[in-house]
Amino acid sequence: MKDLDKYTSIVGKAEIDEIKSLAGYLKGKRVHHINSTKEGGGVAEILQRLVPLMKSLGIKASWDAIHGDSVFYDVTKMIHNALHGQEFEFKPEYTEILEKTNEKNKDLLNEPADVTIIHDPQPLPLVLFRDGQERPCWLWRCHIDVSEADYHFWGALRRYVERFDGSIFHMAEYTKGLSIPQYIIPPAIDPLSDKNRELSSNEVRDIIQKLGVDPQKQYVLQVSRFDRLKDPVGVIQAFRMIQKWHDAQLVLAGGGASDDPEGVKVLQEVREAADGDPNIHILDLPPTSNLEINALQRGASVIVQKSLREGFGLVVTEAMWKGKPVVGGATGGIRTQIIQNTTGFLVSTIEGTAYRIRQLLSNPGLADRLGHSAKEYVRSNFLLPSYLKNWLLLLICQAHKGEKITFLE
Amino acid sequence: MAEQFRFYTEAGLVIHTNFKAESLKSLLIGLKKVSGSSIFYHMHHALLRRHFATSDQMNDFARWVMVQLGQTSLAERLASIDPMACHSVREAREQLISYVQDYVGAGELFFRVAEGNEFHFLELHSMVLPLKSHADDLESFYHGLKKTSSGTLFYHMIEAPIRLGKPSNDFSEWLKNSLNEDQLAEEISRLNPYMYNLYELKAEILQRVRNRLKELWKS
Question: Does residue A278 lie in a domain region?
């Protein structure tokens, strides 16, 4: 079990004590999380951490996943993609399939719970069965960017969503003008996970050397899927512009190309753009390469995330947590995280990216200042303890709705 | 015996107001109609969220006008509003409205931002939480303050005087009324949280308390 005290050296005793005090107001509360899978994917990953932490604080937290057949999962995958803005033809039978599967799972609601938290769209119709249950409070946690959701699909889901007592989104930009409260809780990274934990300089050097990167020469890094929306070719073009001033390397580390036909094409384009330059390393890493990504981020001089479109962008959070200056595309959650010239640089063009990379490589003092602020910003806002604290505040808030200031005694 | 000082901390849950602005005109409408809690969030709470650094646009309005609208002169004026010089959220709101109104009234051509770049008016449900630590005298106050988080500093130095209408920050009030430390109270009340990050602010307060303790020990 992950114990909150393990985070004391990272966020400070005062912060941990505050979280424990907040949890004191929720002791014995039954909080039931429901999503669609216990393994795989970001939601399962965060619940694997959040639920034990809640339990360790005296909250009766539990977690179940609904089960469905392959037709259900095909439909929910389509809904997921439509909510991300992809075009599909909406058919009323989709909601029938969704509701029937949720009805088969309604036994999950047999035990009473003070708060029922539904994650993402798949188990949304469970709310249809809330009447008559000893479950007074229902919250919907939306983990995906629904800002450009297909109108018909979102319209079909909205009638479930508005039966909840509140909804939770990662960012203000994801909200949907709902008639129920829309809370904003940003996602977070776990500073104790393999992807983020401290590594010694020897470990960093050994790992990056194994990946074929020269640890003696400074490098610029972008970690992302090989996807056009992450503009890896644009990053290569920006790197070309700085090469006449800096003898540096560029590392493009990504994955997922093997099972994604589009990814294979983009990877090919990236290789063509690199044109065999020995200073450009293109690493197609398996999804389990957490330590490798950690080491690459820690060894980099500048980290780039030149996305043209992005969700929250936790990869930026990870880079900032390592005290690195980040040059990020001015889109999505990157704009929330990068405060211009304070925690990094926001850019919109290849030329702008090149200029900022050059500036940071030339001026290590500037890079250190931005990296330091970036780390502090993450420490205060985007680490797992802050995430847990936000959840506790949300749960307490349900008993004080409509108030602007609540004095807890 | 002096009245005990109880340390509190503040944490807030962010809620969308369902109002967003895509131009200076709709920003102005928002500034006039949203709750005081929303103005407080964008104007004052920004200090807590970005407490580790001072930046060019500390409040969210100035930042949006600069980054999304590129209206540098208005951004500069909005950033210059010192939330601590305003005695209430209402005063801060009036100041914001007057700057935006003047600018919009000047009649230049103003554009709308692209979808996805709007200003989202958010508001804060603040939870004020008593801490176990308390102070009975200046020395225990010093040690108590040393251990507190930025949330505690934010509550006693910003939330209490601005949002709860107290005459000064909680530290100065207690030092003056319970310990008769009028000069120290005055020195702390002159510290402006808007001019520092919260780490620096804490260090400044601690230094003044430490100096006063040294004086007392000498005498």
Answer: yes
> What confidence tens digit (pLDDT) does each residue in A40-58 have?
777 888 999 999 999 999 9
The parent domain of residue A51 ranges over: 4-188+383-397
Q: What is the rounded average pLDDT for all residues in chain A?
A: 93
A315: in domain: yes
Q: Is residue A144 part of a domain?
A: yes
Q: Is B15's Cβ below 8 Å from some Cβ in A?
A: yes
- B127 interfacial to chain A (CB closer than 8 Å): yes
Show residues of chain A in contact with B128, CB under 8 Å: 405-408
Under an 8 A CB cutoff, do B56 and A147 touch?
A: no
pTM above 0.90, yes or no: yes
Using a CB-CB cut-off of 8 Å, the residues of chain B touching A381 are: 49
pLDDT in tens, B80-111: 898 888 888 999 999 999 999 999 887 666 78
Q: Are B65 and B71 in contact (CB under 8 A)?
A: yes
Q: Are strands A166-169 and A182-184 parallel, antiparallel or unpaired?
A: parallel
Q: Please indicate if any CB of chain A lies within 8 Å of the CB of B114.
A: no
A334 and A369: one domain? yes
> What's the number of domains chain A is made of?
2
> ∠B153-A319-B70 over CA atoms, to 5°?
70
Q: Which residue has the tokens 């909680």?
A: B170
Mark whether A271 and A144 lie in a shared domain: no
The DSSP bridge partners found for residue B12 are: B126
Task: Answer yes or no: do A403 and B148 touch at CB < 8 A.
Answer: no
